[in-house]
Amino acid sequence: MSLQPERRDFLDRLLETPSPSGFEIRGQRVWLDYVEAFADDVWTDDYGNAVAVHEGGSTELALTGHADEVGFIVRRIDDDGYVRIGSIGGADRTVSQGQHVTIHAAEPVSGVIGQTAIHLRDTGDEEYADIGEQYVDVGATDREEAESLVSVGDPVTFSTTVEDLHGTRVSARGMDNRIGVWAAAEGLRRAAENDVDATVYAVSTIQEEVGLQGARMVGFDLAPDAVVAVDVTHATDSPGVPDEKRGPVELGDGPVVSRGSANHPVLVDLARSVANDADIDVQLQAAGSRTGTDADAFYTSSGGIPSLNVGLPNRYMHTPVEVIDEKDLAALATLLARMADRAGSVDRFAVDL
After folding, report:
1. What is the pLDDT of residue 1?
2. Catalytic residue ranges
3. pTM, whole model, 2 decimals?
4. Is 319 helix (H, G, I), strand (E, B) or coil?
5. What kind of fold does domain 5-69+173-343 have according to CATH?
6. Topology given in CATH for the domain delimited by 72-158
7. Residue 325, pLDDT above cutoff 80
8. What is the pLDDT of residues 175-187, one digit of tens each?
9. What does the DSSP assignment read for 210-246?
10. What is the per-residue DSSP string for 297-312?
């Protein structure tokens, strides 16, 4: 099952709007404009975390995703006009050279991350250059010309956008984690449509890729009864994944419920029970020490907020060509909506001792 046209259009607009960590404003505006149509209220904090709410019963459930993506930042400009860059978040140095990028200055500036031609390199024992050794060529001939276009501190993203692959597979940069904020919004929309007996928040956090910072802020301020943090997770069903890192997660087999560490047993049971009753295929994933998502920040906020990480299978994470399956995303939205519908009947999000 693919997404309805209106829902797919919203996903595409999120994916096409650059939102590197620390520079999420444009993406957050797209998200807010969408949720305002069905939320009872929306608001933001001083750093740009965005919240929308359906006012239902006394139980409060937050559905969250992070708005930011990995990217680069302008560090300095050479005398010859080449733009030296640094990382924003976990940028992958092995895929950056030879790519088209956009520097988000006062006006967008097109560039390419240079790669010496294979004819001019000593091949055989090559190593990948660190991000700090790479550079963007914007076509400038000297420092003065480049500085008329860009400034130190301007963010940089790959220029790739959304591409439909065969069937229901979709590729784009920034699936991590536009799918999360999309799903949080869609879960809220359905909760409002069904007038569920719980207060449901949709939250779009900032700066997850640089340390879960937005979730720490929102967790402290919002302090809901429970949080479902939606993020991508590794689909390990493609060639090149080492055998020891192959897990049970496959593209097209449904959303992923994490177990262990931050993942609260009551929420795990709720997600699995809802999935079983609604005939939603879900996959399980072990998180023995940490989830690596906003759930790790939420569950230690405000004295401890019961939290769950629900993942969407994603191939080629932190590259310009991340791949998901629309069927998984549609099932994820249904899972969140059913959890919101059931949340009001949960007596207490606490372990039974």
Report:
1. 67
2. 208
3. 0.96
4. coil
5. Aminopeptidase (3.40.630)
6. Elongation Factor Tu (Ef-tu); domain 3 (2.40.30)
7. yes
8. 999 999 999 999 9
9. TTSHHHHHHHHHH--SEEEEEEEEE---STT--GGG-
10. HHTTSTT---EEEEEE
